Amino acid sequence: MERFFLDGAFGTYYRQAGGQCERCEEANLFEPETVLRIHREYLQAGADGIKTNTFAVRPSFSENWRQVLRAGYRLAKEAAGEEKAVFADIGSIQAEETAEEEYLEVAREFCACGAQNFLFETLAQLDDLLPAVALIRQEVPGARIFVSFAAFSDGYTQKGFDYRDLLRRAAQVEGIEAVGLNCVCGPSHVYRLLSQMDRTGLRLLAMPNSGYPANVGGRTVYEDNPAYFAAKLCDIASLGVPILGGCCGTTPAHIAMAVHAVEGKPSQEAAPPTPSLQQARRQGPSPFLNGMETGRKAVAVEIDPPEDLDIERVLSFSKTAKEAGADVITVADSPLARTRADSFLVAARIKRETGIDVLPHLSCRDRNHIAVKGTLLGGAMEGIRNVLAITGDPIIPLENGVSKGVFTFNSYRLISYIKSLSSDVLAASPYAVGGALNVNAERFDAELKRAEKKVECGAQFLLTQPIFTRQAEENLRKARNALSCKLLAGIMPVAGYKNALFLNNEVSGICVPGDLLTALQGKSREEAADLSVRFSMEVIRHVFDCCDGFYLMTPLKRIDLTARLAREIRNFETGRKETL
């Protein structure tokens, strides 16, 4: 098996070498001699191929991105001559709405330059670049295409994809010659990740960082450790990885030592993975999900976590809901983007002190992948078995732009990430994962397609928005016919006229019917409660046969309304069984 060495980092070494441009790619136009010198240093260090200095170049880079790209390719070709390979370097494009088109534009430009070798690197996902791979195959028959993903030490990318799945999928794409890992991790963790996967049939590449950086005086600094890096790259080569190189923090010295160290080692074919620790015994399905499998209608009662330290009210409400026949308490994740106590911590307390099953919501709005995984690990340790993955209500924009959402994931990717973790690190206590379904959407066919995608990503159940209208009921029936997951119909008993007026005017997507609004006007608290419960039960009877349960939303701390509805549902369910 012939080994092939790519170069190391350009950007971090450019800074170390005294480069003056704010973005190293701009040096292709303004410091061409510096770019040539860096390329030549890597070639003298023993690299068989060099990457163009174009990692971040794409249409969104600047108005003159094409000139920057062409200059980068020309300089790399000038440095490499005819004997060494030049790889058109295409870095990860994160903007989902434009990524596919930008990959295509960059690939098309490199093809026009005459590129024969292509490296897509530091990727968090695969699908967006597939049209660009197809374009390269069409424009450059016989092109060499390498694809490399950036996975954290736990094996997941920033978008929540498992590195093993990504490498296997990429290797099956026609035209992709080699797949592997680069960036984010140091060499020790890249070695561990590759050693623990099935490498059979894969042509692998590895370009780890030199290690993990430190912040010194506001600058990101990597330790100068070429001897250590070279030794670890030898370990990676021993796994049967033929294509090697470096990423952030590596220098020509790192590559020179690695080439020398690996030269004396015999080549090996890809070996089976190193055995990992045996996983703990897997628990059975969640009580909430298991109950629906028996045919019993599930009743989920939503209780907002407190805005202060009043956990006793939440615990009291949970006990009331349990006594009324609820199966699970759902805990919202700062609804309407107003800060409340953490949904998972509150859910854990409810479960410990009341014994009822819990379903905390987990929004994409406030957590990056590190916080999401930490939350899920902690929840599993507390015995939480269910999670509702949602986008989260948008944050109210501020003039100074200080308050912003995170949105590392969207709801699809969050569902997929949780399912992947549940078959891996959380296998001993997997989550039943659900999503949201907006039955009030004006274009419900499009909403249904989104729901189908959530199910494909691993959603086992969907909770709907509140049902108030006949159209929403009809949309639920459409969903029942189209989807293969469990459905819980959303029911929100309004607390009174003012509450209904607020929902209609200030909460997006909710429309309390005019006749109910009129009927509530001027009614006492008790009269309004009777009207609201009667209306809600009418909806429940209409949709009873086209759902697997009911998702009851508690308005304005009125647990009396949702508890009353839970009892009414159980009585109605019992009466139906007795008449069969």
Automatic annotation (TrEMBL):
It comes from Solibaculum intestinale. GO terms for molecular function: methylenetetrahydrofolate reductase [NAD(P)H] activity; methyltransferase activity. Pfam families: MTHFR, S-methyl_trans. This is Bifunctional homocysteine S-methyltransferase/methylenetetrahydrofolate reductase. InterPro entries: FAD-linked_oxidoreductase-like (IPR029041), HCY_dom (IPR003726), HCY_dom_sf (IPR036589), Mehydrof_redctse-like (IPR003171). Keywords: FAD, Flavoprotein, Metal-binding, Methyltransferase, Oxidoreductase, Transferase, Zinc. Residues 264-291 are annotated as: Disordered. It comes from the Bacteria. Pathway: One-carbon metabolism; tetrahydrofolate interconversion. Residues 1-262 form the Hcy-binding domain. GO terms for biological process: methylation.
